[in-house]
Amino acid sequence: MGAISLSAVEKTYGSGPKAVKVIHGVNAEIADGEFIVIVGPSGCGKSTLLRMVAGLEDITGGDISIGGRVVNQLEPSERDIAMVFQNYALYPHMSVYDNMAYGLKIAKVPKAEIDVRVQKAAKILELGALLDRKPRQLSGGQRQRVAMGRAIVRQPQVFLFDEPLSNLDAKLRAQTRLEIQKLHRELGITSLFVTHDQVEAMTLGERLIVMNGGRIEQIGTPEQVYGAPASTFVAGFIGSPPMNLLAGQADGSRFTVGGLTLPLPQPAPRAGALTLGLRPEHAELGTAPNGGWPLKVEMLEMLGAERLVYGRLGDLLFTLRIDATRVPPKPGDTVQLHMSPGQLHWFDSGSGARVA
User: Fold this and answer.
1) Are residues 139 and 215 in the same domain?
2) Model pTM greater than 0.85?
3) CB-based contacts of 102: which residues, under 8 Å, 6+ apart?
4) Which of 59, 62, 107, 355 is the most buried (most CB within 10 A)?
5) Does the residue 353 lie in any domain?
């Protein structure tokens, strides 16, 4: 069983007055066979947390359990994990077959068993025709599949992925994401996948762990994290383009922001200082019965099936997403916006925590 438990996990570098705490009491429960993506900006602690699970970083406090066994003091080789790195880490002088088999040879697995495992992994990853090639004869995507194959043959309890797609171009990233999804469906092995790319996170994760400053901001399915972000940080990080966040003053069905007093489709959850969040696709062109929001258009971007309209509500920036088939406004135009009641998100202006 490959369930992972993180209990009050901490990491501090240094000691005394110069100590720097980078992981602050992280708690998470990951079920056996679950695919979890740890996502956040550079420096948020996501790779450090993964390396602590792997045993490549010592923990300062708390407990890490894998399969019901506390592994704090175990070496990486004793944790029954396999890791896929960003830089492939293949042996250039070895064939694809030998790269995949090397760890098993070191572990003195019988030759016949090694061959069975390598051939099975090669079939899953469609590497059968490449087993005699050297890494220099492979594309970036093929090299990454070899690195995944090397992890598969270990037959571990847990897969750990440390930003494995960041060296690939956009097309290969999309293709390799599909291969990783297929791999997980076939093998069902507990997986932790670290990325700073929220598109990767949304498309791969069964659940997301969103990190910020060494702390967990939210744990939830992609739908939960996108549809009901727990804080302004999550709202601004998850989504492309990100949620519009407008800090202002609420008073019943009116909201004053950017020098404007705007009508709301439903009353705010409370009066006073609040931050209103609205996804770019949840505002529409047109005036509602209680009045619209005047957006002065500054710029448009054509993205194939859709357009992004950038403008200002008073003195605040606002992004609108519209279908590319409709006639777009022009820079300099002032258009009216309206939105449905259920699409507004409210956050505390001080803490950034979700209010409603």
Assistant:
1) yes
2) yes
3) 91, 94, 150
4) 59
5) no
